Amino acid sequence: MKHIDNLPTSPGKFKEKSAYIRLRHHFSLAKTTFWTLAFVGLIYISFFRSLHIAHSDSSRRFLRTSFYGPDWEKRVKESSKIGSGNGNGVCVLVTGAAGFVGTHVSSALKQRGNGVVGLDNFNDYYDPSLKRARQALLARLGVYIVEGDINDEELVRRMFDIVEFSHVMHLAAQAGVRYAMENPSSYVHSNIAGLVSLLEVCKSVNPQPAIVWASSSSVYGLNNKVPFSEKDRTDQPASLYAATKKAGEEIAHTYNHIYGLSLTGLRFFTVYGPWGRPDMAYFFFSKDILKGKSISIFEGPNHGTVARDFTYIDDIVKGCLAALDTAEKSTGSGGKKKGPAQLRVFNLGNTSPVPVSDLVSILERLLKVKAKRKIMKMPRNGDVQFTHANISYAQKELHYKPTTDLQTGLKKFVRWYLSYYRDGKMSDQ
Ligand SMILES: O=C(O)[C@H]1O[C@H](OP(=O)(O)OP(=O)(O)OC[C@H]2O[C@@H](n3ccc(=O)[nH]c3=O)[C@H](O)[C@@H]2O)[C@H](O)[C@@H](O)[C@H]1O
């Protein structure tokens, strides 16, 4: 006997209903099959993923122990040895040692007899071959650069286990004002997370090192009171780069306050010179002028002049060394503060802003090529119109006194540039 529900009210309807039931049955079967397959698939994927992770973890561990093995340790120790000059027991970990300022500072420290070990991740923000050439230059002076990231706390701790660094010169950073709109997270990764990772290690080691680190003139942001003094407000950043550097200054305050770390921030003003950064205007202007390509020169509202307090690398290096030499010891140990510690911020500028159009005129004369100038409105991408440093505080405390004007500094840069890129070939002479 058929169930009442299955009795046809009309043949068509019955036919229809049974087709519907078949379809429903078919669908529920397909659904069960689908979910079973999906479930099995998921188990399959997670099994192989865990195998892969286990494998890559163990291979990473293997790589780590083999890469950072006894030979590596020997090189780190060798590089940290204090020379016979006026080393004064100073041994410095320089982060960003393959960078522009990092290379110059490491070289100066080593040459005056300090122990120096570098750390750099050799990222490809700009041509890594230039970083490799700087590495080779430092290697000839006896400075070894560990290849790694400041976010790798385990690695940094390992370096402190091997060497008792008295100072850290923290120059590793994601630089560049305009690139922050393209890759914002790289700024957070290096300038905020990286700084915190480094300070976490510094606060917990014993003895704690004194730290000098690179802040930036960009923290003055939209200020129009010039020259910029350390006492001026810095709460109106115009770029994410500036915001991360400002955050760095606040983070420094916190680690000084809680853990007794001695911290000195240096606000660099548009540093230029030989071995410089190819992403900076003076560098790529030179390249483009020589290639006959047009260059964009920014102007402010109402055809206002855009100017920078361009500061030559040798003056910056003197400021960095003076900051290290006058840095007091950190007061904490094992993560505990024992008393108040030094906390400083200095402007390191040149005190004489030069319009970008004048920079181009100097380059034209030195390169002996006329630039194809394209004047354009300064894009809203983080740039500020004007920078000008008041350096009286650095003068008083560090005896900082810049001596190189833009004409002289660019002459040295152009000489280096032409020899390095001679005939389109690389040369580190
Ligand atoms: O002091 C700092 O803290 C910063 O200095 C540097 O930034 P900036 O002062 O912006 O240098 P840089 O890019 O060389 O532009 C120079 C001038 O050329 C203008 N400029 C730029 C590009 C262009 O195509 N045209 C142009 O006119 C431009 O408007 C500007 O007026 C560092 O890069 C940065 O990492 C940070 O350290």
Automatic annotation (TrEMBL):
UniProt-listed Enzyme Commission number(s): 5.1.3.6
Membrane topology: Multi-pass membrane protein
Location of the protein in the cell: Golgi apparatus, Golgi stack membrane
Keyword NAD: yes
Presence of the UniProt keyword Transmembrane helix in the record: yes
Domain (NAD-dependent epimerase/dehydratase) ranges: 92-329
Enzyme class: isomerase
Subunit field text: Homodimer.
Protein name: UDP-glucuronate 4-epimerase
Organism of this sequence: Lithospermum erythrorhizon
